[in-house]
């Protein structure tokens, strides 16, 4: 029987949604996230009120869009494959609403995280008036900025380097609307070499009502350790973690995981063996639901965009209370 020809479209949509979506209740105790069954009315109310985080599958790179109410931030944007940058950058631009981009946060100056900017800069229609470009303020970041300016005289955003000595974190320089707070935090290790300094990733700590989400660029363990007290001061909790450095054991330290207790983890991985979640990282995140853009643990392995939503409100379900997250995976992915 051809299923499609007999069932109403609404039903099919429901079936397709079921294939890719999961609702997770993250409680404040040590419990793993609880899988929740939500009625269609609750789903609609939740989604209408949610902030959305999309991690695009870009191969050996990273690109994340945070959006709420027609306003968006791009956190990193690049693919390791030089030939693919223009195509993928263009595909990403096609998914952004006109005038939506309030900021680009270039966590650190590595090409696999920055190569789309040149493409996006050619689309001023995507940016809001006064859009900003944040980077980690290192020499390499400055060089990248100069290169970007050379590629185009009138950039649709202005640069603001994030320094490590900022006295007060969280001055919320990216307006995403009511209920949303954006903290940009950057540390400084003792490293003198430019190559190591390039990894001083700007951390973006995002609050939406009661929900906290942390984005870590490609930070290493030592750098995370340095920033941890400041992160604890801001929140002490990250319900969702953007896992650092494509799942490499160089990062996601036990201290960070124990302290911030992430329960939803998203990772930008690729088919190649150097961009995979390493075993020890997976173990450290064993209390967390892990989603990767290319995950060998979720057969059949395929490239998927990951969409995380939360309305940031406390939900009571079956006697448990917590913040609700929806995670869905989407194919075909951007790649
Ligand atoms: Zn990277």
Q: What is the helix fraction of residues, given as a range?
A: 25-40%
- Return Rg in Å: 19 Å
Task: Note the run of SSEs as H and E.
Answer: HHEEHEEEHEHHEHEEHEEHEHEHEEE
Q: Describe the global form.
A: globular
Per DSSP E runs of 2 or more residues, the count of β-strands stands at 16
Give me the side-by-side strand order of the main sheet: 2-1-16-15-3-4-5-6-7-8
**What fold name stands as the CATH topology?**
Metallo-beta-lactamase, Chain A
* Overall tally of domains: 1
Say which CATH homologous superfamily is assigned.
Ribonuclease Z/Hydroxyacylglutathione hydrolase-like
Q: Could you give a short account of the major beta sheet?
A: 10 strands, mixed
Number of helices: 11
C-alpha termini separation = 33 Å
**Helix/strand structural class:** alpha/beta
Name the average pLDDT.
Answer: 91
Low-confidence sequence ranges: 1-18
What is the CATH architecture assignment? 4-Layer Sandwich
* Top CATH class: Alpha Beta
Hetero groups in this structure are:
zinc ion
Itemize the secondary structure elements and their pairings.
Elements lengths: L2 H4 L2 H12 E7 L6 E3 L3 H9 L2 E5 L6 E7 L2 E8 L6 H10 L6 E5 L5 H4 L2 H5 L5 E9 L3 H13 L6 E4 L18 E6 L8 H4 L5 E6 L2 E5 L5 H14 L5 E3 L11 H7 L3 E4 L11 H6 L4 E4 L12 E13 L2 E11 L5
Parallel strand pairs: 5-6, 6-7, 7-8, 11-12, 12-13, 13-14
Antiparallel strand pairs: 1-2, 1-16, 3-4, 3-15, 4-5, 9-10, 10-11, 15-16
Helix pairs in contact: 9-10
